[in-house]
Each structure stands twice: as C-alpha cells, then as structure tokens.
Amino acid sequence: MILNYIKIAFRTLLKNKGYSFLNIFGLAIGITCASLIFLWVEDELNFNEDFARQDEIYIVPTNQNYEGEWRTFYSSPGPLAQDMKNDIPGVLKATRSSQETRLFAVGDNSINRTGRYADADFLDIFSLKFIEGRRKNAFTNPEAIVLTQETAEQLFGIGEKALGKVVRVSNRDNYLVTGVVENLPKNVSFPFDWVAPFERYRDGAEWMTQYGNNFSDTFVELTPEADFETVDKQLRGLIKTKEERTDDYAFLHTIKDWHLRSKFENGKKVGGRITYVRLFTVIAFIILLIACINFMNLSTARSEKRANEVGVRKAMGSGRGRLITQFISEALILSFIATILSVILLAVLLPQFNLIIDKSLELGLSNPMHVFGLFGIALACGLLAGLYPAFYLSSFKPVEVLKGLKVTEGSATLIRKGLVVGQFTISIVFIIVTILVYQQIQHVKNRELGYDKDQLLSMRVNRDIIDKFDVIQQDLISSGSVYNIALCNSQLLSGGNNGSGFQWKGGTDTEDVLISFRNISEGFFDTTGMEIIEGRGFSRNIDADSTYTLVSESLAKMMSNENESAIGKTISRDEDVLEVIGVVKDYLYGDMFGSSDPVLFFNYHNYARYMYIKTKDGVPIAEALSTIETVLKKHNPAYPFEYTFVDESFDAKFKNEQLVGELSQIFAILAILISCLGLFGLAAYTAEQRRKEIGVRKVLGASVSGIVKLLSKDFLKLVVISIVIAIPIAWYFMRDWLQDYAYRIEINWKVFAAAGIIAVLIAMLTVSFQAIKAAIANPADSLKTE
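Below the sequence we write its predicted structure tokens.
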C-alpha cells in the first residue's frame, strides 16, 4: 500500500512538472536558508561548551558607580582571586588572568601571539588537554610557558617536540616550554595561544597586589555542592571589607552567559547576543513557513484539476483517510526531494555564508544531530505544507464532481489570499528592516568622529621600537611616504586605562567621573587628525611637560563655568597635580553608538603599546607599506611587520549591526523570491482558469493592456493589503531595536514608501509575465472545444 502511494505521488509530480518545480525549488530555498540559520544558532549556543564543569565555572566582573550609575567591567583587583579562596567557602579554585600580546622568537622565526598570564588554577579551571607535559607541574617553574599546539608548530615546526625547549619573548626574556595543549575551538569567549605564570607578568609591581586597581580578569570554580546564591552574596560584600573607601562590588557571572548574555545596564544583566539568537531562530521558522505556504496555495488552487481524481477514488471505495494519506505522501516526497536539493545548495553556499558571519561553520553530515535535524525539517515541512491541502481535497463529494459540477472553493480561496498576504507582509517587513539597519549603521559611521581614520595604520610595538622611536620617526618622515608617526598606550578606538577620584576647582567638581588616560608622544594629535581647539599640544621635551596635561572638550566643560577657559586650571588626584595647557575636541571611541568618557592626555610614551602611522596623500598604499616595512626591519629585524588599518577596525565595531543588516538583506531577497515563486504559480493557474474568458474578451476588442490589468489587479490588492499590515509591524519592532542606541536615526515615512513600491514592482513583474503571456495568446486556441 505504501509503495502504491509513493508510485502515485511520483506520477502526479511528474505529470505536473511546472508546479512540482515551483514547490520543490521554493521549499529547497526555504530549507537551505533555515538550515544556515540553525547552523549559526548552534554555534552561538555551543560557545565555551568544550570546557568541562559548565555549572561551576564563573568570571568575576565588578560593578562600579560613576555619576550615580552602575557600570560593569570584567576587570577586577589583583588580590581578589586569592581572597575569594581564603574567605569564601565553596570557592574551589580561583585565578587572576591578564590578556597580553607578545613577540615569540625561536632562531630566525618570530611571530606575535596573544595569550594570558595566569595563576596555576587557570589550567585546572579550563581543563586544558595536554599533548606534551603535565598539567600538575606545568607552572612549578616561574619561567614556564604553555603553548597551544598551533603556536608550538609555528615556532618549532610540525611534528617537532616543543617540551623543554626555550622561547625568546619580546626579544628580552627566555621562557621554558613546560607543556603543549590542544588548540582551543573558535567558539570560546576568551581565546588564547599561550599561558604563562602570572608572577612573570607582575614582575614585582606592588600596585597589582592592591585593591582599587582593577586590571585583571578573575576566573573561579565552585565546588559541586556550593550554593550559587550564598557564594555570590558573600562575594558582593568582599571588596568593601578590603577597601572601605569604595562602593564597588564583585559578582559571579556563569560561563554559560559569557557569550550570549554579556550586556549589562546599570549593573544588571539585560541580555546580549541571545536577542539575535532568538530573533534569527524565529526568522528561520518564518522562512520555512513562507516556503510551505507556496505548496498550500498551489495545491488548493489546482483543486479543480484534482476533483475528478478524488471523485473517482471515492466512488471506487477509497475512504477519506486513504486520500489524506495519499496527499500527505505527495507533500512528504516533495519535501524530501527539496531537502536533498537544499543539501547541495548548503554545500555551495556555506563558504560564502561563513565569510558574511565570520565563522567556520560546517555542514557536518557525519553529525547525527545534523542529519536528524534535516530529516525533522523535511518531515515538518511536508506535514505543514500537506495537511491543509490533504483535508481540503479529500473533502470533495464524488456525486458533485462526477456530474461535472464546478468545485466551489469558498473558504479555500479566502485562505489562499490570506496566505499570499502573509508571505508578502513578511517580505515587506524584511525590506524595511534592511533599509533601517543600513541607515542606522551609516548614520553612526558618518557622524563626526574627531579623528581621521583614513590612511592610518596601527601596529603593536615592543621595547626596542620605543627606544629607537626618534630614529624610526625621522627615517619614516624623510622617506616621503609617511606624513607623521606617534605612540600611544592604548588603541585609538578603545577605552584604554581609566580611573576616577580627580579633583579641580570650578565648574562641576566631582570625584565620581570616569576619565580615560592616554599616554602619548608629541605627534599623536597631528598623526590621528585630532583637533586642539584651545591652547597648545605637547613639546618633544617630555621632562618639561611632565606636569602638564591636555583634556578633552567634555572634561574642559566640566572644569569650567560658562564662557570660562580650562587653560591654566589644575586637575589633581592624590599627590599628583597637573596644569591644563590644551583642550582637544571630543572624539569617538569605545561605544560607537553613544558618547565617550572624557580623556586626559599625558606626554609620556615609555609604556606605549601601539604605534600609529599616517601615510601621505597621493602615495600608493602598497608603496607606503613597503617603505614602512623596510625602515622597521632595519631598526628591529626580529619584529614581524604586522599592522591593521584603523578604518577597518572602525568598521569591525559594527560587527553585530552589520550582521543583522546583511542577514536581513539575504532574508528579504529569499523571502521575496519564495513569495514570487508562489505568486508566479498562482498567476499561471489564474490565467489558465480564465483562458476562455480572455479569448472572448479579445474577440470582443479587449486590448492587451486591458487584459493584463484585469489579471493583475486582484494580486495588486493583496500586495497593498500586505503593505498596510507590514508597516506598523516593522515600525514597532524597529523602534524597539533603535532604543538600544543612544545615537540613532529617526524612522522616516519614506522608508515605508520605498519598501511598498519595491514590493509592488516585484509583484507586478512576477504577475505581468503570466498576464502578458495570456493576453497575447491566440483567442482561437482558447475558444476551441473538443
């Protein structure tokens, strides 16, 4: 019996090749799109899953109060980890950790790698899997270092043993390799290429042992029987017992939330990427629904063609249940064929999709979960698409259809129109979302930044480059390819070091303002294009400017009353007193969608981490890069020439928003394509049903344009209804989305008008093809009878 159902289903599909193709291709696109989203969602949900003891591992952020608002930072005081182990029952392991980038060299081979200085508990908390060496004694030597397998192979060669060998670090210190661990997966929140003992990083710095200096990440592991609420409550009061002058407090943040729920507002966890995971999951199901709608529409639209078949089957004794099984079998076969086609499409499209989302997703058909997932999607689509048509088609009365009475569609027509409206409503919402996300990103990118990011290079520096900076600067500028060069202790686009407790006289004198620090060389403002709007910049004489500072515009306004200058005023903290000699125009860093904290600039670059180089206008970038590399290799041959463009780093700040925009654009195109496939099929069926009517109208003098208008107007009404429904839905969701950004666009009615026009044009192009084809057909062919 089942084989018979399958045989009949295949015959039906082959008999109606055009409609079968529309259904299969539409479903395949929908399944492909949904599968791509589900692969992305799986990767997001599986972040940090390779680390064991998920229920016991936490990071310890701190909440700090500035200007009456709690702000959350992952940095914490250096002694906090050990004090948690000593003072809080239930804390099994705890470690300080600081992320750093260092130059590694073995012979003539040198590479930059980012890793962590940490306490020995770090190796246990994250259950690092040792390939060489043993976890137990990896940090017994204070000069030890543990490398990932990839880093070890890059330094010593593939297949070579690294254990016991020496690595030169930052062209200054020797580290002994005491372990090699398996490479970390890409989906971890805190990746690293190496781990070394924290004491080597501390190197006797007493400030790292004091509360009030938040600089390290603190990771802890609780005992299995520990109560989270109890430990968290004790932790929140711990800093106050060590530092009475502060209201800062630390708390536990589980490893399960590091990636998806990392957003805090006023000290409270409010979400994060989990919002996008939920959003795209819903979108995946919506795309599948749109694809299934096509099958339902085309199946019910062709009901008159199947009516005689149903009538004959019922007259021959076939019950309604068997007919329902037959029609659902057809839907399931079609769905599984579409799924097979979608697997091919996935294999072709996944590499390009990975480029868009910056991941390395794999189809993974060897993974049973992926196979079962595809099977489940095929089964769900088949049932969803086939149930209504099966029950509808099997409901025909054999007496009526065999007498030749016309099948009255009634509610089926209304449902079909509703489904078309639903398809285009979703498509129009996607169009509106795509436009608004693009506008929001461009709005922020085009705002006044306070610096010139074009032709500006950033590169990490070591002690050797800092010591030879004056000579390197002279050689680069004299080369004719470089406009200027400068040093800074932090990245231009990030917050860098910061603190509070500053005092001044006049203006708004408050100690709870969070101020960022920039230790720079004298050419920093000229190199980055920052504007000194009052006073002067630093001189080349560091000692002469040691008691001077420049302040950002927002800080100058705090320090001064209306129409009063900040130049000549002093700002102090503890025993340090600095005189303001210049005011720098506010510039954007950190939160690209909001406002940035005020900044203090110091003429001191001995601890710089970054060098910024501005190339000259008119000089080809390839030529400039070659010149820069030659000069740097001349003065520091061991240091690899690695750099980033600041404008590319700036664009990367909008990664989440660009992902939403690009995926919305893809979803909009796919949703429209799937909807148009269904509309194309319905238009073809409508033209076929009205073939004789069109012939009569042409004989009586109807024009081609008149017939096209006649066939198109019903579909145009449905699209207009879709626009009316889509606009308030899109407005509601996008208004809510934009509320997350302090610096945002206003939603303009022109966006809705543009989306509506696009939808109408696409629908009319789709329908017009069939309408024109029917209108120019020879009426004699349509009016012939047997």
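Residues 57-258 form one domain.
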